[in-house]
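FAQ: What does the model actually see?

It sees only this:
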Amino acid sequence: MFHVKLHGDDAMARDADEKLVSRRIKLPNRVVEKPLRQVAKRLLMALCVLLLTVLIVWLDRGGYHDNANEEVDLLDCFYYATVTLSTTGYGDIVPYSDSARLINILLITPLRVLFLIILVGTTLEVLTERTREEWRLRRWRKNLREHTVVVGFGTKGRSALQTLLATGLQREQIVIVDPSAKVIDTANAEGLTGVVGDATRSDVLLRAEVQKARQIVIATQRDDTAVLVTLTARQLNRGAKIVAAVREEENAPLLKQSGADAVITSASAAGRLLGLSVLSPSAGTVMEDLIHQGSGLDLIERPVRKAEVGRGVRETEDLVVSVLRGHRLLAYDDPHASPLQLTDRLITIVRAAPPTAHHVTLGPPD
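And it is asked to produce this:
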C-alpha cells in the first residue's frame, strides 16, 4: 500500500479553483497592438478626416448656403462636416455652386465613406479577429497529432522542453498545460500553444488533445498532483509515453502504478549529481554535459543500422552504453547484448550534431 508524500507548494493545485473559469486554449500570440492603442489611433484618424473635411468646406464656403443666415462661418463648417460625415444630413446647409457640388462628389463623399469605415472598423476587426482565431483553433485541432504535452511550465517543465527542442522537436508539436494564465502567456510569447486549467481534470487534458499525443511530460511541483495527472492522462491515452517527475523517491512506485512509463526523482537525481561532483568534479561535469542536449556529448537512442546487424556492441561506430531489445535493457558488457539484431535500439554517447544535422533521438520504437 503506497501513500503520497506531500512536499512544498504547487501552483497547479493552489490556483486550480480560481482558474477553473479560465480554462481555455491559447495559441501562440501574433503581434497585435493593444486595444486602447488601436482605439486611440482610430479616433485620431477620424479626427483628421473631420478636420480635413472642415478645411475643404471652409476653403469653398462661398459655394454653400445656410438657410438660417445665408452665411457660412467656421462653426457652420464644423457643423456641416459633422452631419455630413455621420450621414445625418439635416439639409439646412447645402452646397449650391457647381464647384461645391463637384467637391462633394469627388472629396466629401469618399471622406464620408472613410470616416464610417474608421468608426465601424474596430467592431469589424474584433469580429474578424474572433473568426480568425476560431478558424486557427479548428485548424490546430485538425492537424495536431503525435504531439507532446507538457504539464507544468515551471523549472522542470522548461528544462524538459529545452531538451526536447534541442533534439529537433518542433514548437508546433508542443502543448503546455498550466493553471496560471500568466505562465501560459509566457509560453505563447515563446511560440508555444498553451491550455489554461487544472491538468487533473480530464476536460482540460482533452483541450490539449492528449488523447492524440505521443508523449506526455508531467512536471508538477507536488507528487500527489503528478499522480492524479498521470492517472487521468493514462485513462485518456493508453498508448502515449508518459514521463513524470516526483520530489520524493518513495512516491516513484505509485507513479509507475498510475501509468507512468518512466519516473524521475528530481531531489534524488540532483543529490546524486551533487555527490558525484564532490567526489569527482570532472565526472560531474561530464554527466551534466550528457543530460544537456545539443552541446558537447549527447546521450541518444537510435535504431541499429543494417551494417551493424550481427556485429558486437563494441564494433559499432558510436560508444554504446546499453542495448534495448524488446522490453529488456541490456548493459554494453552483457553477453546477451551481442550480436546486435535489426530490431534492437542502442543507447549511445555521440558528439552533439551541428544545428543543420539530424539524428535519431530518444523515442519509442518505430
